[in-house]
């Protein structure tokens, strides 16, 4: 099987311009669409190398040039940026189109590159993303010239008049998408920044939006529903721990929210799946599908899980001896993919309902329900609002 590979390469522009280093990350398939990554300071760090590797896991051949010591003003700047594109375009591993992502100073370069009137450049770069351009006011005219799909992520604190001018100038260009992120500062998406949870939410949202643009224009495309089905098959039918974790990235995690069971990383997940999940499900366990929503990098699977509590079910009822009670619970899984591998699973259900059904919680006087919530989801014919003692009908 092919593996991800990374290396430092050298880019030499035409016209005898000075060479400069670049980091190259290739997908495990060995080839794919090209992606240029331009960072806040146009440099390379270990964190940025790891970021490039993550994008390669999405299926891209990623080139990160180090332009930190080079002036990009005037014709020299055009020479260097054209050199980057030509270098990536000529790599045998690059199959298909080329996209570009820039942040900070790199965003300004990405905008100018996408807006370039050069027919060669315009044809080579199919789409682009800019995070918080450093000279947004100066880039407004350039953005208006862009004729390909392009996305702009704006941090909080951007001058309101400049934002308004930007929106007005691009309002007639349906290829330009602009997103704002209240409460986050310049540099929020940099891998060099340890973002608090509330900022990480913005980082994740911006990433998925960017990925949607790249996938739509360049691919690669993966059947996420089929990949999820295969993962479930290994868990519940084959009961094969090794094959289950092979469907996941090395740093994947699983979080059963109500019981806080699961694992982080391949080694931890192997232990969890083998000792506390795959062989801990009663023999009559079954899943009744309700709905499935497919996104660009996520699957949301809604189902009813049914089983007889004939053995300790560690992930749902850890430490609780078998009660031989029948349990049926609505359950939702949000599966995040990185390329064709699972990156995370968030699993939600109503633990109070489970405890009611096995007799550990008396629902009298409490706003909770037992197995009837699953029946209501499946049939839609049960009475609603029975817990609302003062339910009012509109006159």
UniProtKB/TrEMBL annotation:
GO MF term list: hydrolase activity
GO term, biological process aspect, one: polyketide metabolic process
Disordered: region residues: 1-21
Compositional bias ranges of the Polar residues kind: 1-13
SUPFAM superfamilies per record: alpha/beta-Hydrolases, NTF2-like
Pfam families cross-referenced by the UniProt entry: DLH (PF01738)
Domain annotation Dienelactone hydrolase: ranges: 85-217
Stored InterPro entries: AB_hydrolase_fold, Cyclase_SnoaL-like, Dienelactn_hydro, NTF2-like_dom_sf
Gene3D superfamilies attached to this UniProt entry: 3.10.450.50, alpha/beta hydrolase
Coiled coil regions in record: none
Recorded superkingdom: Eukaryota
PANTHER family: CARBOXYMETHYLENEBUTENOLIDASE-RELATED, POLYKETIDE CYCLASE SNOAL-LIKE DOMAIN
Protein name as catalogued: 4140_t:CDS:1
